[in-house]
Amino acid sequence: MKKETADELEALGSSLQHLSRKMPFSVPEGYFGQMTAEVESATCGVIGSMPKGAKSQQPFSMPEGYFEQMTADVMSKTVGAEKNRTIPFVYLRWVAAAVLVIAVGVGMSGLFNGVNVSTAGSLASVSDKDIRTYLSEDMPTVDIDKIADNSYLDGIDTKEIESYLDENGWDDDVLTENIN
Amino acid sequence: MIGTKDLIDDTELIVLFKVKQSRERAFKVLVEKYRQRLYWHIRRMVIVHTDADDVIQNVFIKVWKNLDGFREESNLYTWLYRIATNESLAWIARQKKFSSVSIDAEDDFVLQRLQADRDFDPKKIEWKLQQAVATLPEKQRTVFNLRYFDEMPYVEMSEVLETSVGALKASYHHAVKKVEDYIKAG
Fold it and tell me: Which of A14, A43, A51 sits opposite B176 (nearest CB)?
């Protein structure tokens, strides 16, 4: 016991300073050592000696290999979990599909309106939230392949398209809505 | 390059943790450096090994997630103890909440767990001491454990428990008296 702690108990007239502070609890044998080994294997780290103060607590028992196992568990739940975090493939597909659909929509709008539209500029003005909402609600009905190879418009006469647009309007919202 | 944990002080550990390339190794060193001290602090609070194991893993996960935002004007050691203490107390509160014991029995929650230990032997002085500590109110028990077993200076304990040094001293002195009386009563 440190002098400061012992002096304090002495000043209080307590006999607790003379008691053993040995922990009666048991810990699996090798608990701390096993944890170290598993962390080593998981991360190739370098582990040193027991921390100061641990010796006085060693009499308490613990499951064998507990601390090595515990370190391994902690590392797998923290470092390991972060390493394993990847962008879901499905999400990537949605993003790719969003870019494609919007690009085609904007391109078609520019084509029919005879206006030179910047795809990048148009995309920049659309919030991520709007893209996600749009995709989650409407995307399943879009035939991406058709849009990608422009076959969506195959067989449709230009005059028919112009007639359709005259009736329904020429703005981007109508175009996008009807594509879907 | 990181050597052994004993060669790296806490300030350096924090700096290394905040650098992506050394983050993982710094965290591993931190775990190795503090795992036993924190384990025993938690174990004295929750008593049962498997529960202490659950709590300490939660503690290190929180440390991993929050060390980036750690304010360096604080002491890493006391910050870790604060997390461990709060996690332990929260765990005990949850156990009490979901257990079917009566309100009266809640006060004996820790004592009952202690007496259920397969190695429990009330004739041995170390168990007697633990029994005495288990009868203390929760906050007082925490103060007693930190001071008597961990020998934590009051200033640091004040940071851990966010309580004034004067209040901690008074709490500890009362706890010492109660523990001693319990042991003497035999």
Answer: A14
Per CB-CB distance under 8 Å, the chain A contacts of B5 are: 47-48, 51
Are the Cβ atoms of B153 and A4 closer than 8 angstroms?
A: yes
Q: Which domains does chain B have, with CATH numbers?
A: 1-98 (1.10.1740.10), 100-186 (1.10.10.10)
- Cβ distance of A67 and B36 shorter than 8 Å: yes
ipTM exceeding 0.85, yes/no: no
Cα gap B97→B119, rounded to integer Å: 27
Sign of CA dihedral B102, B106, B111, B116: positive
A174 class by beta-carbon count within 10 Å (0-12 exposed, 13-18 middle, 19+ buried):
middle
Given an 8 Å threshold on Cβ–Cβ distance, is A23 in contact with B44? yes
| Tokens describing residue A79 | 């470092």
**How would you write the pLDDT of chain A (180 residues) with one tens digit per residue?**
888 888 889 888 888 888 888 888 888 887 776 655 544 444 334 333 333 333 344 335 677 778 878 888 888 888 887 777 655 555 556 666 776 777 777 666 656 665 555 555 666 677 777 766 666 555 545 455 554 555 555 667 777 777 777 776 655 554 544 444
